[in-house]
């Protein structure tokens, strides 16, 4: 089986999909606030390079790692789902095979924990570290 990159389409398809993705993101009132003040041409270029590499195509990404790029942005699971949904819709609109789009969505799932920061989530102590609250003795 070829790289998912080739199943999705060619480099021009991915470039157009990334442009459509951020058009949809900026038009989505749930997502737009995260991108206020962001240099969008730079973000489009970084996202295109990142996705090409993540899909097994040419790896030209030289940006920050995904966890660092999203640290402190307090991105929710709902926002993550919405953004991936916009990308999937854009690719289907451009004629990518639905099965390939489903595989891409599953692959992007692997970055969820790096992107999403749920406020108030329990802090897990590292293995072997004493629990935050010592047991009553
Ligand atoms: C699998 C999902 C995602 C991937 C692979 C991804 C990937 C990226 C990449 C490659 C960058 C550029 C990093 C750099 O500066 O070098 C970036 C930046 C950014 N992403 Fe994401 N992203 C994802 C989901 C999201 C979501 C759900 C949101 C918000 C709803 C978001 C908001 C942002 C913002 C605001 C920036 C710019 C940060 C800055 O310039 O300070 N991302 N993302």
Question: What does this 3D model show about the protein?
Answer:
Pfam families: Bac_globin. InterPro entries: Globin-like_sf (IPR009050), Globin/Proto (IPR012292), Hemoglobin_trunc (IPR001486). This is Group 1 truncated hemoglobin. With 137 residues, the chain is mostly helical. It has a single domain, classed as Globins (Globin-like). The chain is 54% helix and 0% strand. The protein contains 7 helices and no strands. Helix 2 packs across helix 3, helix 2 packs across helix 5 and helix 5 runs antiparallel to helix 6. About 5% of the residues have low confidence. The site of protoporphyrin IX containing FE has 21 residues, from helix 3, helix 4 and helix 5.
Share of residues in strands: under 5%
CATH architectural type:
Orthogonal Bundle
- Say how many strands there are: 0
Discrete helix count: 7
Structural class: mainly alpha
Query: From N to C, what is the helix and strand string?
Result: HHHHHHH
Q: What low-confidence regions span 5 or more consecutive residues with pLDDT below 50? A: 120-126
* CATH fold assignment: Globin-like
Bound molecules: protoporphyrin IX containing FE
- Radius of gyration from the alpha-carbon trace, in angstroms: 18 Å
The CATH H-level homologous superfamily: Globins
Distance between the termini: 59 Å
Chain-averaged pLDDT: 89
Helix content: 40-55%
